[in-house]
Amino acid sequence: MLSLLKSIKKRDPAANNYLEVIFFYPGLHALLIYKLANILWKLKLTFFAKTISYIARMLTGIEIHPAAKIGKHLFIDHGHGVVIGETSAIGNNVLIYHGVTLGGTSLNKGKRHPTIEDEVIIGAGAKILGPILIGKGARVGANAVVTKDVASFDTVMGSPAKSVKKYNKITNKKFTAYGTPTDIDYETNK
Questions:
Q1: Edge-to-edge strands, sheet with 101-103
Q2: 36 burial level (CB within 10 Å; 0-12, 13-18, 19+)
Q3: Which residue in 59, 74, 99, 114 has its CB near the most CB atoms, within 10 A?
Q4: Cβ neighbours, 10 Å, residue 66
Q5: How many beta carbons lie within 10 A of that of residue 188, not counting itself?
Q6: Are 69 and 89 in contact (CB under 8 A)?
Q7: Per-position pLDDT tens, the chain of length 190
Q8: Which helix (H) or strand (E) holds 73?
Q9: How many CB atoms are located within 10 Å of the residue 112 CB?
């Protein structure tokens, strides 16, 4: 729990202290409730898992299906309107802003939601749809609509989402809030 609090405080300049994060961050509350719902889901107590999940959605405005797979240190900033579908898989150190949908595009019972690898930032309002892969360190810009795989360390923006820049963690030390690059010349895309 302490490592999760530290990771949230590190990625949110508005977090003044851990007490604020514990009491005022709905993304943290949704994740903690999801963990309980996920345990119930794994125990095949699906009705109770969905009940807990429903209560979390009512309290936080964040909908996380109890069967979703979530790695360490997911940070859902602001949170309201986030939807994480049943077969979604999220890696470690992922940052998701408000209004993001990790949704399905079919009614098939198999894998129908996205897989998000480690250290991805997903901007506010982005829609990532279908059983696609968002590669490690990728950035998805605010309001992007993504229906195709995104390569590792790539930045995509727009509807439909298109690559605008490769992200280099070593040379680009700037934080890319909302998944939007802060140093792009939009004339040359460099």
A1: 63-64, 83-84, 101-103, 127-129, 145-146
A2: middle
A3: 114
A4: 25
A5: 6
A6: yes
A7: 888 999 898 888 888 999 999 999 999 999 999 999 999 999 999 999 999 999 999 999 999 999 999 999 999 999 899 999 999 999 999 999 999 999 999 998 899 999 999 999 999 999 999 999 999 999 999 999 999 999 999 999 999 999 987 655 555 555 566 655 555 443 444 4
A8: none
A9: 18
Q: Residue 66, CB half-sphere, CA atoms under 13 Å: how many?
A: 22
* Three-state SS at 116: strand
**182: helix, strand or coil:** coil
Query: Among all chains, which residue has been given the structure tokens 């959605």?
Result: 57
Residue 13: exposure state from Cβ atoms within 10 A (0-12, 13-18, ≥19): exposed
Q: How far is CA 119 from the centre of its chain?
A: 10
Handedness of CA 66, 63, 146, 76 (dihedral sign): negative
Give dist(CA 137, CA 120) in Å, integer.
5
Sign of the C-alpha dihedral, residues 106, 108, 109, 112?
A: negative
Q: How far apart are CA 52 and CA 26, in angstroms?
A: 15
118 is written with which tokens? Answer: 């480690």
The residue type of 10 is K
Residue 6 bridge partners (DSSP) = none
- d(C-alpha 171, C-alpha 167), whole Å: 9
